[in-house]
Amino acid sequence: MAETPLQMTERLYGKLQRRKHNAKKWSDAYEGKRPLLFASPEFSTQTGGLFDEFSDNWCSVVPDATVERLMPIAFRLEDGTVDRTAGTAWRRSECDVEIGLALLEALITGRSYALVWNNTDAG
After folding, report:
1. I need a labelling partner for 6 at 20 to 30 A (CA). Which of 33, 80, 91, 109 fits?
2. Helices and strands in the chain: count of H runs, count of E runs
3. Sequence-ordered list of residues with C-beta below 8 angstroms from that of 1, at least 6 positions apart, any chain
């Protein structure tokens, strides 16, 4: 029996809920909202606790640097030829502008989502 739209929505919502904790954990790390104290007890003893409250968030460096170097350049069909129609639609929809946000989210949380539709009514 086919899934109803409501059943599909509830199933997908359940998947999002199950992934929410990990996505928040990695997003918080990226944004520096985690205890980032790296001083060992020995270091703390030697410095008299001077740096106990100090932390530096390097969790954003890797995804940020990676996103700067990623950009889709073409869409290839199964036979290896370039799909120019897909490339034109990509640029016309301004996906080339927004792709950095989607890639960053994917690098941070392991997933990224986009809404797509066939807007045949648009001129």
Report:
1. 109
2. 5, 0
3. none
Q: pTM to 2 decimals?
A: 0.69
- State both tokens at 97: 């502008």
Q: 85 with 91: CB under 8 angstroms? A: no
The string of pLDDT tens digits covering residues 60-86 is: 999 999 999 998 899 999 999 999 999
Answer whether 91's CB lies under 8 Å from 75's CB: no
Lookup: tokens for 60: 């954003």
Around 117, how many Cα atoms within 13 Å sit in the side-chain half-sphere? Answer: 5
What is the DSSP code string of 50-68? Answer: TTTT-----TTHHHHHHHH
